[in-house]
Here is the input.
Amino acid sequence: MGKITNIVLAEWMSMRILEILDKTLMTLAGLANFSELSESRLQRYLHKNSTISVEAVAKLCDSLSIPMAHFFDKSMPLRIATDAHSNFGRFRTKFFPLDKKFFKDEVTEKNQLKTTQKLDHRHQRESVIHLIFDSDYFQDPRTIEQVIATAEKAYQITFKVDRIASLLCKYVAEGYLERKVLPRGFSRSRQYTYCRTSKKRQIAAKEEIAVIERTNVLSR
Here is the structure.
């Protein structure tokens, strides 16, 4: 079939490919497999580096059940059937579980674990911030074990000792919490309590941090 060389049309083709990828969550590899067009060819279309064939447009439209007239209609977005019985729906059902990187929302067990850990860490940070700044919890000295028990009961969040210690130490360094050593007889290992510092101490800590930061900048 004939070739279309109009640059405006090339830009429109690129935009439509991006729209298809966005609405279907397919990767370029997935779209290539789905439309039976090579990935390198789609890549060239996407970056407007190749002349467009009517045949290629027809393959895209046929695979997605889109009338070609709609594909070129600038007044309307593409309407792509994504239900389970559509061409795309059957394609997704078949290939999504195979981890072929055909879809942007494919999640491997490793990535899922990383995502879960990131969410857990964020929730842990938020719970500590709430205890320190939005409650009077640290008006009284608290041990790490007490903080862990409170977080689990109030927020359904489980902390490891090292994790909660590192979070609390951040606010000790910033002057919002004060850490004190408990007497040796209290426990076999060294134990600390954490308590809110006075407003005066917090201001002084902020000033100390500002001086350190200015010193670091000047010494560079």
The mean pLDDT is 83.
